[in-house]
TrEMBL record:
Family: Belongs to the YajQ family.
Protein name (database record): Nucleotide-binding protein GHK86_11890
Entry function: Nucleotide-binding protein.
Residues spanning the signal sequence: none
Native organism: Acidiferrimicrobium australe
Gene3D superfamilies referenced in this protein's UniProt entry, alphabetically: 3.30.70.860, YajQ-like, domain 2
Amino acid sequence: MPTFDVVSKLDMQEVRNAVDQAQREVANRFDFKDTGSSLELAEDEVRLQSSTEDRLRALVQVLEEKLVKRQVSLKALDFGKVEEGSRGAVRQTVALRAGLDSDHAKAVNKWIKEHGPKGVGSQTQGDQVRVTGKKRDDLQTVIAGLRGEDFGIPLQFENFRD
């Protein structure tokens, strides 16, 4: 019986490279000179800091551009609120979401049950959803449908087996 897994992963090496590129660009750009703008990659978040809110928005834009060039989905970013810092500086934390939490797994299962072809089933297994079906074509139809739907997180499809 053919199966595949629906997962939501984040390539941390690509994220690290994108943050490094953004740091280099911020260090070299004239409009970021003497603004105290910085990016810092923590374990599962990126901390942004700048002197004004306008510079912070520009910093976010630079980060997003670098992530898109490295094929990291912007759906994996969860922007926190802008906080006031010392001496008028502003900070923002961008959380990196990876893995299917229970709410998103339920939404994927529900979508498959409502829109999937007859004979296709799904079940949650930890931070992934296993989809099984009788025909390979049915599973490919489910993959195409899930790609067209917006669940608010990036989805990848792995372990396609006949």
